[in-house]
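FIELD: query
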Amino acid sequence: MNVNVLVPLIATIAYIPLFVILLSNRPWQRRHRLFLLFLIPAMLWSLSGFFLRSNLFAPHILAKIIPIATIWMLVQLHYFISSFYRSEHTRIPLAYIFLIVTIVLTGLDFIPQSIEVTATGTVIVHYGIWLIAIGLLFLFTLGVQNVYSLLQRYRISSDASERNQIAYLLAAIGVLVVFLLGSFTPRGGEYPVPHIGNFVTACVLTYAVVTHRLLDVRVIFRQALIYVVLYGGSIGMVVLFFWLAQRFVGFELNFASLALAIGFGIPAVLLFVHKVRGLWQKKVEEAFIGARYSYRRQLTQFITKIHDVPTLEQLGSEFISLLAQSLDCRRACLLLPEAGNEGFSVRFTYPPVEDNPMGELKLRPDSPVVTWLEHESTMLPERNLDIFPEFQSISFLNSNLYGRKREKKSDWQG
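FIELD: result
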């Protein structure tokens, strides 16, 4: 099995972490569903390329599946990318016309043009002018539209995380286009050029998901990633050690050596995990939540020593500051009961400046927010402000407190 066969397989495997991340995070939003519909043909494309190049399955069938999977992947990538600059659903998915045309031309044997099997068993497919025409038409219509819209969104966005997400999406598009076009060069069909691009795209998207929150990732996945890498890496090093001993020293693997391996390996794994767990957890958390990690650490430490805080002023100001920064909240306030009535008024704000509009916030005793908190004894989710009719009468959400309509209930919630 040569490198040309392994590259599509590696590209397929590279998408598995994205599948695990996606399937371990529920509930799904529209963007999650669109991303899943992109992952399926992306993996099918490279997996079909692996079977085709290894000549393990009927090459004539695989040669028809590959172009269909390729166009399907591009169509789904278009709809996934459009979710970053278009909020509403697409009423008529016209992009599927490209997929339908590809399926029809493949069924009529216009795609692929020819299949060649060399003396060494290598399968070389010539897809012909029809697939090139469909690809170029897709690139100069929907592809250009996606790039232009992302650049416009990048230009007007004031959110640093959103700009980072768009930058990585543009990088993924650029990589995929370059390597796909490279497959149409005179010798491009002999080498897995597009699958190299698919592998790089998977790496870029994985990094964007993990580091720049391209998709929302829950805490449970981060914890699972920490332990899988720690224990999996430790066991892998132990296995590698005994394999090297067997390979170069002549160490024989029998019942006694297996008992020795278990007796040596378990303490070694536990010792390694104990030594590096703190550092690895810090690196993973920093990769997922960035600068907020340090504020969350400070907030945890503050809570553990809260009984030592001498004054209410110090407690309130430090607490609201750390809480707001750990949640990446632009403005926040802490409301306390007013003397003489059952209402609440702002006592501490973040940032602590004179012109912070959060300082004007008040909650009357008959406020639906106060009523909710008294009856439910739990947090009030943001989505409930839109769902339940009793919250529609809250006047401060539409007041000048936020400068524009509902700018941000998240500020109030912080």
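FIELD: remark
Residues 4 and 13 are 15 Å apart (CA to CA).
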